[in-house]
Amino acid sequence: MPQQPSDSRQHLWSPITSDGGTLAPNALPAVDPVAVLKAHGLDVPPNLPAHVLDELVRVVTLVWVNGRIVPREHFYIDPSDEGLLFGRGIWESTRTVDHVPWLWPLHTERLLRTAADLGIGVDPARIPDAAEVTRYARALAGCDLVVRLNVTAGVPAAKRPGVVWMTAQLIPSPVAAVRLRTCPTVAPRDEPYRVWKTFQYGGRLAANQKAHDAGFDGALMVDAGDNLLEMAHANLFVRLADGWATPPANGDLLPGTVRQHLLAHAPVPIREQVVPRAALAGATEAFVTNSKIGIVPVTQIDGQTFAVGRETRELAEWLMPSPRVQG
Predict the structure, then answer these.
(1) End position of a domain, from candidates 170, 200, 224
(2) Is 323 left (phi over 0), alpha (psi -120 to 50) or beta?
(3) What is the structure's pLDDT at 323?
(4) Radius of gyration over alpha carbons of the chain, in Å?
(5) Is 13 within the bounds of a domain?
């Protein structure tokens, strides 16, 4: 939960810019924090301390736009922006650790590669670095958060650049394990919207919903050859008889930053390898990863079950940095 703010922190209704300046004193009206949170889908327990409500309202109402922290009501996107009209937008998301965005260089590198591949013009100088994201996160709350960076294509015909903005949310509650249902992949091979993080995420959301409707926690995509690919929003790792494997990033899946980090730095060997569904018969452990959840064990894929194994637990402990204890 959000922590007691220090005396130097400013009150909710004086939103601050990332350089420490303040917005106009009347930028936000004085309203009931509980009502604000309820309007954003958060039902909070009664009798929460005022400072906790204060920070929760900051998280749901303040956004970072081009270096300034402003109320959501002040956010504007051109009605002609191709990100709005055609889904020509890209995004990255990660949790913070001591307010520092986890694996941020990998996220910004991927975002700029995606922009180049999709012909979305964005000046790299407009992309916030880790220090800028940290200032935003600290302005919102004393606890760690999940931050999401978004970039739209703008209006190229009029030479109007798109919008660059960030939002934040509370880190999801820890998940002990997930059960997955396989389904056909949601886009043709080599389709750019299949391998990059773009606003065109509807197919993945629909696949997950179908899995939820069937009683599972999420969808696991398979290709036309019945090879395992990825979860709708996370990468898959499987412990086979001869070691750990993850499906290859060869145009069939969205390669995540945690996946990249594990392949380069994990304390045990992990290889890219085609993983047929039939190979699950010899698998002893499995997990999925993304930068919001870290590592989460997989305990079921369709009708096959797995134990939460020692190697999965050890990798999860190795992967996630622990925030410093606040004194």
Answers:
(1) 170
(2) beta
(3) 54
(4) 21
(5) no
How far apart, in whole angstroms, are the C-alpha atoms of residue 137 and residue 94? 12
Q: Please enumerate in sequence order all residues whose Cβ is within 8 A of that of 165, keeping only pairs 6 or more positions apart, or say none.
A: 63, 64, 65, 66, 75, 149, 150
pLDDT at 2: 45
For the chain, 327 residues long, the average pLDDT of each consecutive 10-residue run is: 37 41 46 86 87 92 94 94 95 96 97 94 96 97 96 95 96 93 82 80 90 97 95 95 95 93 97 96 96 96 96 94 47
Domain boundary among 170, 188, 204: 170
* Segments of the chain assigned E as strands: 62-65, 68-71, 89-97, 100-101, 145-152, 164-170, 178-184, 218-222, 227-231, 234-240, 243-246, 270-272, 275-276, 285-290, 294-301, 304-305
Q: What is the pLDDT of residue 251?
A: 84
Determine the Cα–Cα distance for residues 160 and 153; give it in Å rounded to an integer. 9
Q: What percent of the chain has pLDDT over 70?
A: 87
> Which amino acid, 141?
A
Indicate the DSSP class of residue 231: E
Looking at the structure, tell me whether residues 127 and 218 fall in a common domain.
no
Q: Is residue 9 in a domain?
A: no
Instruction: Give the tokens for residue 253.
Output: 């899946």
- Predicted pLDDT of residue 3: 42
Q: Does the CA dihedral 178-182-187-189 come out positive or negative?
A: positive
C-alpha 140/C-alpha 137 separation (Å) is 5
